Amino acid sequence: MKTVIQLSTKVIDSEYRLKKTLLHECCHVAQFVLEREFRPPHGRAFWKWARIATRRFPDLPVETCHSYDVHYKCKYQCTACGKMFGRHSKSLDTARYRCKCGGRIVYLGMFDPDGRRIAEKVPTPYNRFVKERYESVRAEMPPGTPNAKVLQRVAQIWKDRKNRSDGSDNE
Ligand SMILES: [Zn+2]
Ligand SMILES: [Zn+2]
């Protein structure tokens, strides 16, 4: 079976993206040639090889083309099928959230729009405050309160506390 990889210059604007896209396409080759699975394009066979590729090249995470459209900084991957998940912040609860296939999700780190790993910021006092208080604040609110509302409430508590301590400093 003859297989040809064609890369688009529209997508490839850096050496990094070239490597990343080539690796993605190699997973399709493995899917077609070794697994004989042609449909769906990003199905079980694709993700099987994507998982193998990611293990070998952790800095070149294989993703579906669609993930180029929206850049999610935080990347997660299913340990069972290799499917990638993106979030704008480190918001995915890996202890609770499961992939559709039932697999456990692991956090891969933060990546820039080119998919390069970026160093994670050390949590600020506010970040730590949110982490500490989030659960208890949510417990006080009606069940099903959206995440954003809970965070708003936590931010308000933080602000109140800050104002209070600023006030007492001035006295
Ligand atoms: Zn693809
Ligand atoms: Zn999975």
TrEMBL record:
GO terms for biological process: response to stress. CDD domains: HMG-box_SF. Residues 1-108 form the SprT-like domain. Pfam families: SprT-like. One of its GO terms (cellular component) is nucleus. PANTHER family: GERM CELL NUCLEAR ACIDIC PROTEIN, TRANSCRIPTIONAL REGULATOR. This is SprT-like domain-containing protein. It comes from Vitrella brassicaformis (strain CCMP3155). The lineage of its organism: Eukaryota, Sar, Alveolata, Colpodellida, Vitrellaceae.
